[in-house]
Structure formats: C-alpha cells, structure tokens
C-alpha cells in the first residue's frame, strides 16, 4: 500500500547566490498581479535582474538580510531587508501565487524581523495604496501607515512602519 501523501515541510533559511534564478521566477510571478492592478508593467520588482539578485545574495550581512522559504525542494517565497542605521526597509517580499494565503508570507516576515541586526529598531516598507490584501496583511503584522509616496512607475504607495518587538527576557 502506498504511503499517504504528506504536505511538504516549510523551511526558512538564508538563500545563497545560486538561488537567485528561482527567487526571480517567484518574484515575477507574484508581482504580475500587482503590475496588472496598477497597469504598471515597469514596477521595480519586475525590472530587477537575476544578476542584481545574485549580487544582493553574495553580499548578505548586517546591511542586507535575506530569507527564503522552501516547501520540500521548491523555493516558494523570499524577502530581503536593507538596513540603514536603526531602520530596515523590507523589500521584494514575495510568495508563489499558488501557495499565497497559506501562512508562508507570515513566517517569512517573522524570520526577517528576527534576523535583523541588533541595531535595527524599526522596520518600514511601501505597498500599493489599492492593494487591500497587502494592507491587511501588514496591519496584522503590526505595521501602521505613516504616509504616501508615488514611485517612478507612477504608482501611489503607502509607507508603513513597525517598531521592533522587545527582546524576550533571558531565563
Ligand atoms: C504579500 C504576500 C508576500 C503575503 O504572503 P502570503 O503567503 O500570501 O501571506 P500569508 O498566507 O502568510 O498571510 C495571508 C494573509 O495575508 C493576506 N494576503 C495578502 N495577499 C494575499 C493573497 N494574494 N492571497 C491570500 N491572502 C493574501 C490575507 O489577508 C491573509 O490574511 P488572513 O490570514 O487574515 O486571511 C503574498 O501574497 C505575495 O507575494 N503577494 C504578491 C506580491 C506582493 O504584493 N508583495 C508585497 C509587496 S509590498
């Protein structure tokens, strides 16, 4: 009798430069929906090249934190954080369309928050002002809107910020 199918386990780790191609594939698939929503095919995440992602991943350290999520062997999402002093910008946060809504994004964002260097006290990001799912997602993750900006593709964005959680007391 065949063994019952088990859902593959979610694993979150630091991606290496050789994961750049898979990350770009997922990123493009995930951001197409946003590009269609705003009739803006030139949004920055869709213009990013595999070389640029590879260079980011070759330079991970205190200023650039990256996390990717795998379900079994398949890379299904990633996120990067760029630290500048006490603030870290969350960028390129993507989950493959067919697994969105299953908790992978929440786990990735938590992993990024936890991996930020100790100097970081604030996380911030921008998201589309009409992207209700994203606004709800970030609100549930503790982010609050602090202003609006227009990007170079002409899309109106909301800036959101969240303070870092205090460290739990050491036993
Ligand atoms: C935003 C994103 C990374 C979230 O990842 P995810 O794995 O879908 O998120 P989770 O499953 O952990 O969380 C689901 C929650 O997020 C919200 N959500 C955001 N986008 C969603 C989507 N496309 N499908 C389903 N839920 C979505 C839902 O409101 C849901 O809240 P609920 O649990 O109260 O119903 C992912 O949807 C994505 O890649 N979107 C396209 C690219 C993008 O817009 N990135 C962010 C740019 S700022």
UniProtKB/TrEMBL annotation:
It comes from the Bacteria. The keyword Transferase applies. One of its GO terms (molecular function) is acyltransferase activity, transferring groups other than amino-acyl groups. Pfam families: Acetyltransf_10. This is GCN5 family acetyltransferase. The keyword Transferase applies. Keywords: Transferase. Residues 8-165 form the N-acetyltransferase domain. Gene3D superfamilies: 3.40.630.30.
